[in-house]
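Q: Start with the shorter request: fold the first protein.
A: Done. Sequence, then structure:
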Amino acid sequence: MTPILYLVIPCYNEEAVLPVTSGLFLSKITALTASGAISDRSRIVFVNDGSADRTWDIISGLCEKDSHYAGIALSHNRGHQNALICGLMECADFCDITISLDCDGQDDINCIDKMVEEYAKGSEIVYGVRNDRSTDSWFKRNSAETYYGMLKFMGVDIIPDHADYRLLSSRVIHALSGYGEVNLFLRGIIPQLGFKSSKVYYSRAERMAGSTHYPLAKMIALGMDGITSFSIKPLRMITGLGGIIAVVSFIGIIYIIVGAATGNTTQGWASMTCLLCFLSGIQMISLGVIGEYIGKIYLETKHRPRYIVDRIINIEEDK
């Protein structure tokens, strides 16, 4: 039995690139259907993440022209990870497998063939992994390597050089639905599910049109989510650092007392100023890390929905 494949593609202000990449996605679905690799009931599902431009109008127009296109509109911008989880959850009951990828055409769509082949061999999770970072700037390339190394050090199980280009079976998605946290970091959650997995490698291309919607600030925020959602090691490091400073301070007190008793003290403010600045800096960093965790707890205890769907086109018809 040929599987039903749904491509899940989050979109945020993508009016410039959608007319270019939508045809490529349709051509790939058509070719896989013709080869017998997937069912003709397969879909290309665009998830509009509260775009402020004509993205939803373009998606609606595509859905009217061809039933292979489908659309989900969120009522408000909720961020890439929430838009992605929305697409996966809304599609899980209507397909056998999903493949999530970006709308900008940077993910090599020819890897879709390899992912479907890996699924046919028994893999329920297939990761799309970059085989090089030649298209990245020096800063982005080195910061990514540092980040992945830091996550490994923190004990986070993550696939290096893998973003959100992956195949998931419907069984995996239903298992994923049991994770109810608001602070989503799918790159860390998926490896925890434990299903049979494999990897396919590809080269990431330049964006086909428009500009990136993932600037440095958002990448840093995603990086913080990755660490604080899966590891308490930063808190333990703070505890360890506090212990070291306490020991050093105790030695310093003994040194001062001995110096005062022997009359070897000297007047001066430089050493005291440096010590106060150092300790103040450590305290502020520690409070910031602790505050990050408390903020996560605060958001989780509210149990607010991760997304609210406004409209759906060409998916519910398969019920």
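Q: Next, the second protein, separately.
A: Sequence, then structure:
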Amino acid sequence: MKKDKLYLFTLLAISVIVFVIGYFSMNYLIKVSTNRFLEIQIESSKREAREFSTLVSLQIENGVDRETVINNIQKSIEGTNIESGFICMFDWSGVEICHPNPQKIGKKTNPNESYVRPIDDGINSEDFYDLLKNKKEQGGLREFNSDRNSEIIYLYPVDNTDWIIAAHANIDKLEKHIHQLKVNFLFVYLLTSLVIILLSLFTVRFIGNYYEKELELRNEKLTDEVLSLSKLNSDLSNFKNKIASEEKTIISDKEEKSIYKNRLLTYKKDKLISLKVEEIAFINTENTATTITCLNGKKYNSNSSLEELFTGLDPMLFFRANRQNILSAKGILEIVKYGNNQLKIVTNPTTEVSIIISKNKTSEFKKWLNT
């Protein structure tokens, strides 16, 4: 149940992150793509207006009659497809001279018609995009006339005349293109977000299952180690009971008994003290100084080395843990796992420096507890 909740919260978190980031990314890409589309449209209209202006200027310079020029221009643009945009020409008074729709010729441009920017400036893609979105005046742009389906986006004069070439853009058509672009981006955004969320969920579950298996293996290994330590501590308890029982037993073989020392000669400050072996908890050496710690916590010094002391002690009761320590079975409180296949001995009383049974001596220590 906890695992299912974790996957659910993970799915929700990934979904929120993906949708939020994707939403802002989508809006940015829509704006960039729309500006690029409008920029192409504007540049195309500018180029067409300039080419027409140059064509008309050349005809005028070559002495072609104005009426003939107007007729030629009218024939070239009349009946053209005005779905996306078109070119027309009017004079400085605003009267239409040439127009794809012949009915517009001779009519004066209404002051409310869209008349975008100065001739030498024109309109850029960002302002045009804002105008299409808001349909309001922005940076010198007039409001759109709702009765028109096209707007003038560029004006270019014809040299040596009072004529002006006007490039129109079909607003409805442009808005349809932009709307379709948004729909496409929205579809890709939703589809991509869904795919990312599902792939993320599957990836999380796959990684989660992998680590769950690893955790199970570690738990099994840890269980085995705990059982092993439990057995060691159980052996330690049995060993202590065995020692206590043997101490109460009268040993008849005096010769065997005399092999090991019952007392050790120690000193404390300026006093010599004869210490009973059964009172020792552990012996350690540091910087060539040998210290004997008793079960009651008292400490005594010895002039003998660990090796000399260990040879006189009963190996049934004492164990050489390492170069610095000799352990008494009575002084061992607990055995815990330490590092890689090593054991740490918890003594009573406690030691200032940890007593570690190395990997090489672990099996010997276990055998000693089972003696």
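Q: Describe the second briefly.
A: The first strand starts at residue 85 and ends at 91. Residues 2-190 form a domain with the Beta-Lactamase fold (CATH 3.30.450).
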